[in-house]
Write a structure and sequence with these properties.
Elements: E1 15-20, H1 29-38, E2 46-51, H2 57-66
Parallel strand pairs: 1-2
Length: 70
């Protein structure tokens, strides 16, 4: 895959990020979800793939749902 400058967002395409790791509270995934929940209010488009499993996964999925994230 070709790398491109982070400022080149392809017109109106969202910035894409990914997290691959353990779903535990200490990893800061809840903080990422909270930040994502604020982005629509600021007119920013971002797509994040959260990939992983762990003891906090169910709680993080529920938190994402309360923030309106899918």
């Amino acid at each position: 895959a070709a790398l491109r400058d982070a400022t080149d967002r392809g017109g109106d395409a969202p910035l894409r990020l990914a997290y691959l790791g353990l779903m535990e509270e200490a990893r800061g995934v809840r903080l990422v979800l909270d930040a994502l929940g604020q982005l629509p209010d600021r007119g920013r488009r971002l797509h994040v793939d959260l990939i992983g499993d762990g003891r906090a996964r169910a709680a993080l999925e529920a938190h994402a749902a309360t923030l309106g994230l899918d």
